[in-house]
Amino acid sequence: MIKIGLLGCGNVGHIIASRPDIVSTVAVYDIVGERVRELAAVCGAAPCEEFEEFLNHDYDIVVEAASVPAVKKYAEDILARGKNIVILSVGALANEDFKNRLIEIASAKGRKIYIPSGAITGLDNLKIGQITGFKKLLLKTTKSAASLGIKCNEKVLIFEGTANECIKKYPKNINVAIALGLAAGRETEVELWVDPNIDRNMHEVIAEGDFGEISIKVSNVPSPENPATSYMAALSILTLLKNIDSPIIIGT
Q: Do 201 and 167 fall into the same domain?
């Protein structure tokens, strides 16, 4: 069974640590000490309130389930210490210089950076864009008015442009777009909609190229303990970890 260090003790962290049939959670770290102690008591992991203490534990991979700022603050040190990392808050990699630094460190240390599918599906086949290119790669995301803190009476388009432009205005709502771009090898065009009549996040991916057309629709059920979190995102990390050492590789 794979041994993990869990960076982030929020809702996603709890979902991951609650599956000892899939992962053995050796150590947990968060900047909020109360969260650390609570999750450690639940899963039997070592509670770490200092990052250096967290890095000193013996595990196979760090699982980031915290935030974009946490990735920017800790990912370089994690890789430099010779540890693999799963990055859920992939919006951090929208910064090209930061992404390239992580790649350089990982290559030098012989380590891996894993990007789970998160709140979307179909990333495996979208990687064909790295070979043949896409004529169109569009992400249409629709969120509830409450989740974005916006008041409206009908469905409204609030942003249209590139993923890198979107992250400047809506930094907490861009992980899916960045993951798509990393998979496809090109920047994603984004439409961000707000709808007062829905209670879940909706994602539609439209890709066109010489291969034909791809259309993917995902309706994310919120996590039971935190409506702001996609349950699918947490499950995608567990699935990645479950299959990381499998002799059979499914998908591209």
A: yes
Token code pair at residue 1:
């069974």
Entry pTM:
0.92
Whether residue 227 is contained in a domain is answered as no
Closest to 193 (Cα-Cα) out of 242, 160, 239 = 160
Kind and range of the H or E run holding 37: helix 33-43
Catalytic residue, chosen from 203, 229, 234, 236, is 203
C-alpha–C-alpha distance, residues 179 and 54, integer Å: 27
> Is 172 within 8 Å of 147 (Cβ atoms)?
no
Any domain includes 249: no
14 is catalytic: no
Residues 129 and 91 reside in one and the same domain: no
Q: How far is Cα 31 from Cα 225, in angstroms, rounded to an integer?
A: 20
Per-residue pLDDT of the chain (252 residues; tens, 9 = 90+): 899 999 999 999 999 999 999 999 999 999 999 999 999 999 999 999 999 999 999 999 999 999 999 999 999 999 999 999 999 999 999 999 999 999 999 999 999 999 999 888 889 899 999 999 999 999 999 998 877 888 898 999 999 999 989 988 888 778 899 999 999 999 999 999 999 998 888 999 999 999 999 999 999 876 666 656 778 889 999 999 999 999 998 886
